[in-house]
Design a protein that fits this description.
This protein is an alpha/beta fold and 761 residues long. Among the domains are: 152-339, DHBP synthase, CATH 3.90.870; 358-470 and 734-758, Nucleotidyltransferase, domain 5; 517-577 and 584-672, 2-Layer Sandwich (Nucleotidyltransferase, domain 5). 34% of the residues lie in helices and 16% in strands. The protein is built from 23 helices and 27 strands. A ten-stranded mixed β-sheet has the order 3-10-4-5-9-6-8-7-11-12, with helices on both faces. Strands 19, 20, 21, 22, 23, 24, 25, 26 and 27 form a nine-stranded mixed β-sheet that branches. A hairpin with a 5-residue loop joins strand 19 (479-489) and strand 20. The longest helix has 27 residues, at 663-689. It is globular and about 90 Å long. Bound molecules: zinc ion (2 copies) and fe (iii) ion.
Length: 761
């Protein structure tokens, strides 16, 4: 039976048989089982030997984990494609090795009665399979078939030129495919929410989807029938193949082939496409009948959370979709598709969600006695983290809390996880930024529940997150943390984002940074990258010199068309021009200077992504590398910290602009230059600190490390120096991984306080 601790097995037999059982449990567990530990104990002999049976779950302490949803398994796949089988073409086939889990769970322990499958009572055939220990569906909670289980249907949107009629069950898939073939946009209710789908090879449909959804610039995810179909458009390495075909079935970001016949509108300005393979029988049946990939973007209005309910889709997606492919198995928990990218030879999670969450990860050595705590994460790309019994449970990707519906959802999920894991935190943790909604919520919750709240510096949390995911023990000597990031509040009240920190789990000390530059107009500078270009030019060569020397550049014309007088007076008066040592804004400044997203960025980091694409294309296709752009390192000397100063880089870049050097070469020279500067800064800091600092490890974190070129260049440089280099793989390097760092910092702080108390007594 499932009890509060996991699976409880009573077995009798010869010693040999019992030890074989134990060995096989460890060596060949069921595909979705996760064995954390096996404990054995002798029971009295009088246990009657009876037939194999599974007893009902015991309610009680909810320690049994709810697992992540899993991609349709090979056996179920074969079944739904085989006309001889009972579940031929049945879109909800699943078994103990695959199918929905977290997305249908309302309460724990995980039993059909506490899932959205409770509404469907099993038919005799399903029931027989469910009770037969030899069957693949023995105790598969979401077991279903066309007789007793959920079903699909097609609905037409009110205003659409496409003709759709509600069809018989057997024709629904074929009718949907027909619609997609004609260029219709179909909202498809999937596993964790709705997707908006259209034929990815149809440029007009792709454009219409973008316009209707008001999603501009951001790449669309794609679903292809199989690996072969994916390879038609993208390069797929063996590791990427493994990820695509894994039971988590994430979106994998793949390098596109030169001419792939897909419309540019799928991922404007980028040479990377996110592909996933069909992960439910419904998706499988749909894609089987199409020889072209589908756009599968989340079903929502721009930046809101994905819609899950039928009624809500009817009302909210009616202006976007021409038709709806519906089903009646309710989605209890919304969960987005996960996103992963292979960089520097390893898989790197960019978004942790479906197929990965929820999951608990053991904390490093020394954290066994960590208190129960709850970390609220950041503000954008947020997630939260529960620490319980020496393990961390990271929530799935929650999205940007600035959106009201997302923030509501965040609070709903906090409650859900707290219930699922029967979590009673003793300490709450949040970012130091008082304006983050997660921080405000944590403060209110701490007050309400009378709990202590620890507020952690943003980049310390990034670095600690990287240390924890790499299993660095609690008592390890400090590392040199390099946080190349967007924005986070520093300990000195200014905005940080390009930081060198000497850090352990308890404390961190800033020992260097990028040179702080004004963000003119505050957050406006994120949306309008040229503001950063202007600020950088003013700081590094002065506007007057720039106009004297570079008035023939298109960049000059472009900037001159902006309301510079206002910006200048803002700079002079210091109004709404916070200083930021942000690496993300430096990328913005450079990308706008060479003509990317000239007026506004459609999402944070758009310029940086396009800049990376340009550089990679250049490096892949050209012999000419050109020297890395030079950066200066402003010297150490109290009270100032050493700073990476981009002034010489700007001079070189402007000369290149003047000489009409190709943009790809400039992008490559910038990436190399920045990596060299970060490496040099590291060398200087370590030399300055001397061998007694015991620092032999660097830890790389922050959103800018989702840039392959930067990550790979730095790893190569550190390797050449023999430094151990920790990077993210399991959790995102951006703010999606922040909560883990907050959690371990609070745990370490608490454990140290406790130790001191004991020592004091
Ligand atoms: Zn299966
Ligand atoms: Zn049935
Ligand atoms: Fe950050």
């Amino acid at each position: 039976m499932n009890d509060g601790d996991g699976v409880l097995i009573h077995a009798t037999g010869s010693e040999q048989a019992l030890s074989r059982l134990l060995a096989r449990l460890e060596s060949e567990p069921p595909p979705l089982a996760r064995i954390e530990s096996i404990e054995t104990q002798s029971i009295s002999d009088d246990l009657e030997s009876t037939a194999f049976s599974i007893k009902d779950s015991l309610l009680g302490e909810n320690r049994t984990r709810v697992t992540a949803d899993a991609c349709v398994c090979p056996a179920c796949r074969e079944e739904v494609l085989n006309p001889q089988e009972r579940r031929y073409r049945y879109p909800f086939a699943n078994c103990t090795h695959c199918g929905p889990r977290f997305s249908i769970v309302k309460e724990v322990p995980y039993d059909r009665a506490r899932t959205t499958m409770a509404d469907f009572s099993m038919c005799a055939d399903c029931e027989a399979e469910y009770r037969d220990p030899a069957d693949r569906r023995f105790h598969a909670q979401p077991i279903a078939c066309s007789v007793c289980g959920p079903s699909i249907w097609l609905e037409k949107a009110t205003e659409t030129p496409f003709t759709v009629e509600r069809t018989e069950q057997a024709e629904v898939i074929a009718a949907t495919v027909q619609l997609l073939d004609q260029g219709a946009i179909v909202a498809i209710r999937g596993l964790g929410g709705f997707h908006l789908a259209c034929d990815a090879t149809n440029a007009e449909a792709v454009h219409r989807l973008r316009t209707r959804k008001a999603r501009f610039g951001k790449p669309f995810a794609l679903m292809a029938r199989d690996l072969e179909a994916t390879r038609r458009y993208c390069h797929v390495s063996s590791l990427e193949r493994e990820l695509l075909e894994s039971s988590s079935a994430p979106i994998v970001l793949l390098r596109t082939r030169g001419t792939n016949g897909l419309p540019e509108g799928l991922a404007p300005g980028l040479k990377v496409l996110g592909f996933m393979l069909p992960y439910t029988p419904l998706h499988l049946l749909l894609t089987q009948e199409m020889d072209r990939p589908l756009v599968m973007t989340s079903g929502n209005l721009s930046s809101e959370p994905q819609i899950t309910a039928v009624e809500e889709a009817r009302t909210r997606l009616t202006d976007i979709a021409d038709a709806f492919l519906m089903h009646d198995r309710d989605i209890a928990n919304r969960i987005d598709d996960s996103v992963v990218k292979v960089m520097a030879g390893r898989s790197r999670m960019l978004r942790v969600a479906r197929g990965y969450s929820p999951a608990s990860t053991p904390l490093p050595e020394g954290f066994e006695k960590a208190p129960s705590l709850l970390a609220y994460g950041g503000e954008l790309k947020s997630s939260f983290c529960l620490i319980k019994e020496g393990a961390a449970i990271m929530s799935q990707h929650q999205g940007d809390l600035e959106d009201v519906a997302t923030f509501d959802d965040f609070q709903h999920n906090l409650k859900l996880y707290t219930a699922i894991y029967d979590h009673r935190p003793e300490i709450l943790v949040a970012d130091r930024h008082p304006e983050y909604l997660s921080t405000k919520l944590a403060r209110a919750d701490a007050e309400r529940d009378g709990l202590p709240l620890l507020e952690v510096q943003h980049h310390h949390a990034h670095i600690a997150s990287c240390m924890a995911e790499n299993g660095l023990p609690l008592e390890s000597p400090p590392v040199l943390g390099i946080a190349l990031d967007g924005l986070g509040l520093g300990t000195d009240g200014t905005i940080w984002g390009g930081e060198f920190l000497v850090a352990d789990y308890q404390s961190s000390r800033r020992v260097g940074s990028l040179k702080p530059i004004a963000m003119i107009g505050g957050v406006q500078a994120i949306r309008e990258p040229w503001r950063n270009t202007y600020a950088h030019l003013v700081e590094s060569i002065g506007w007057k010199t720039f106009t004297e020397r570079f008035s023939d550049l298109p960049l000059f014309d472009h900037l001159s068309g902006k309301p510079l007088a206002i910006l200048e007076s803002m700079l002079a008066s210091g109004v709404n021009t916070p200083l930021a040592s942000s690496c993300g804004r430096l990328f913005d400044a450079v990308s706008a200077a060479i003509g990317l997203c000239p007026d506004s960025a459609l999402f944070e980091g758009q310029g940086a992504m396009e800049l990376e694409t340009l550089a990679e294309e250049w490096l892949a296709s050209s012999e000419v590398e050109g020297p890395a752009y030079p950066f200066a390192i402003l010297p150490i000397g109290e009270p100032t910290l050493p700073r990476i100063d981009p002034t010489p880089m700007w001079h070189a870049l402007l000369d290149d602009l003047h000489a009409e050097v190709p943009a790809g070469l400039m992008a490559a020279r910038f990436h190399r230059g920045l990596a060299d500067a970060v490496f040099e800064m590291t060398t200087i800091i370590l030399a300055e600190m001397g061998p007694e600092s015991r620092i032999t490890t660097v830890a790389l974190s922050g959103g800018c490390f989702q840039n392959s070129l930067l990550l790979e260049s730095l790893l190569a440089l550190f390797e050449s120096k023999g430094l151990r280099c920790l990077t993210h793989s399991r959790f995102p390097s951006n703010d999606g991984g922040l909560a883990l760092g907050q959690g371990v910092i609070a745990a370490a702080t608490h454990l140290a306080d406790q130790k001191q108390d004991v020592a004091g007594k």
